[in-house]
Amino acid sequence: MSMPPASAEIRPLKAIVLAAGRGERMRPLTDVTPKPLLKVHGKPLIEWHLEALARDGVREVVVNGAWLEQQLVDTLGDGSRFGLSIGYSLEGRDHGAALETAGGIAKALPLLCDATKAFGDDAFWVVSGDIYIPGFRFDAAVARRFASGERLAHLWLVDNPPYHPTGDFGLDARGMALSGEAAADGDRWTYANIALCRAGLLASVTPGSRAALGPLLHRAMQERRISAELWRGAWENVGTPAQLGALNATT
């Protein structure tokens, strides 16, 4: 495994918060508000992530947008009130619609990383703007270990929610994610929509094109290049008005 030169310093990783989706299942709320700006316990979903990223030492964040994307810009601004510098990758303005997850990340890569500058600069955090995971730490030590390695992604997985009972991926005893198969005990888990990634995962995606992330993850898992771990804390993929209402009713 390659290691950074002894004199190399891996800077805090940047992050992309995915916020471009239309949020069809959340209509009619998302007819007038981008899904990541819907509030949980009085705070927009995306702001939970921004505050956590800043708390854990991340300083530069990219937010991608498409549906009602100007509201994201107007609400979040330059990020200074969170202790961050926020840049925007606006898919609606530049391409007329969202580019899906992999397409959105590929478009934003010039804002996220530059592998020509320093070891580890091709790695970054990815988190969906519409999940609620209040206890998650964007751990700098975990990020440094990932950036110093050669894996294309490290995923967090959660127990399967009722609406997704079969899960997404397996996990072997060495912490490698499994595509199309379960762990030896038959278990599969759901991707929590939070990960560490590196630019090489998106190598086959032409910037500006639409592309889904799932096929890229499956291919890299088959090549044994993606690790994963289980997240046992609070997590919600806030998909419908009923889910949002139930979450806001909790204390």
Can you describe this structure?
This protein is an alpha/beta fold and 251 residues long. It has one domain: Spore Coat Polysaccharide Biosynthesis Protein SpsA, Chain A. The protein is built from 7 helices and 13 strands. The strands form 4 sheets. The chain has a 7-stranded mixed beta sheet. A two-stranded antiparallel ribbon has the order 2-3. A two-stranded antiparallel sheet has the order 7-13. It is globular and about 45 Å long. 41% of the residues are buried. Residues 1-8 have low confidence and may be disordered.
- For the record, the count of structural domains works out to 1
Q: Mean pLDDT, rounded to whole units?
A: 89
Going by CATH, the architecture would be: Alpha-Beta Complex
The neighbouring-strand order within the major sheet is 5-4-1-6-11-8-12
CATH H-level name... which superfamily?
Spore Coat Polysaccharide Biosynthesis Protein SpsA, Chain A
Instruction: Output the helix-strand order.
Output: EEEHEHEHHEEHEEEEHEEH
